Amino acid sequence: MHTIPMVLLRLFTFYFGLTTTFFTLSFFSVPTASFYARLLASYGCLILCAIYGVFASLALRLFGKHRISQWTVARAFRYTMALTTGIHFEIVSGKEYLSTRPCVLIGNHQSELDVLLLGTIFPPYCSVTAKRSLRLVPFLGWFMALSGTVFIDRSNSASAHAAFDKAAAEMRKERQSVFIFPEGTRSYAEGPEMGTFKKGAFHLAVKAEVDIVPVVAGNYWGVLSAKDKRFRAGSIPVKVLPPISTAHLTAADVEELARTTREKMLTELVALTKSPMGQKATKTYVEVGEKDLARLATRTAIAGGVER
Q1: What is the mean pLDDT of residues 107-117?
Q2: Contacts of 102 (CB under 8 A, 6+ apart)
């Protein structure tokens, strides 16, 4: 009877001790210690919040409030990550647009850290889309299923279309919003780059006759790079763009809608990355250092005729 709790307690103690050890080593500038410390802390936060999400979803269902489950868990993940890793996304403009409901929210997809982006921008009565295989993951998959995630089978187009049809009907009926990464995969970009957009999010918005709300996070290669074993504390700027109406649009308009939306988001991504806050999360910051970056920014401003 007591075996399972004891095993779980020992696992937790070991995990906590290992994470603490890496954080301690990072203070002595041990190479990659900071990376592994924050990596372990992040997975720990994700597991704890997923477990919390299962119970929160079950409890909220009793009161007919399960549609805010993902919002409550997103906020929990935001605060636990800020406390344990020192990393947070900060909305610098357009926060008022997150109250648009229902809508299809879309964002640029850089790495696994984008889960934390959701912790910052996720509004109540919103759910994510996810590949169908995640449904089988213990705790995380259970939470996602209980909280209304739209699962997509990417290998079966007919099944994917059926899932989007169901989601569109649900959005209209319950005024439920949906968040989608239209790139479909992480870019792991070292600069302000964005992949080609898949059309699913735009078909869904047109089908449901709802607005599209683009969310852009500045490039944060300087904060997280698995290739270079770098994971440091920092603030990453986020801008929420004005809603894009899909009124009177049809499936024939989707390709152009996706193209123009991507262009708007890419323009903002470049601008955000060049901003003072954005620069501190980039490759440039890591390579030239904070003081040299300030001098570089000053020379650029003078060369461009910008008044100080």
Answers
A1: 96
A2: 125, 171, 172, 174, 175, 176, 177, 178, 208, 210
pLDDT value at 161 more than 80: no
Coil, strand or helix at 195:
coil
197, 262 Cβ separation under 8 angstroms: yes
- Cα distance between residue 139 and residue 216, in whole Å: 29
What span, in angstroms and rounded, lies between the C-alpha atoms of 175 and 103? Answer: 8
CB-CB contact of 85 with 228 (8 Å)? no
CB 81 within 8 A of CB 109: no
Phi, psi of 233 (to 5 degrees): -70, 155
Model pTM above 0.90: no
Local structure of 128: helix, strand or coil:
strand
Sign (positive or negative) of CA dihedral 163, 164, 165, 169: positive
Query: Which tokens is 139 given?
Result: 């705790």
d(CA 87, CA 115): 12
Lowest-pLDDT choice from 71-75, 100-104, 160-164 = 160-164
Q: The tokens of 65 are what?
A: 């409030």
* Angstrom distance (rounded) from CA 292 to CA 299: 11
CA–centroid distance for 177 within its chain: 15
Query: In 3-state terms, what secondary structure has residue 52?
Result: helix
Q: Which residues contact 303 (CB under 8 A, 6 or more apart)?
A: none
pLDDT, tens only, 232-254: 999 999 999 999 999 999 999 99
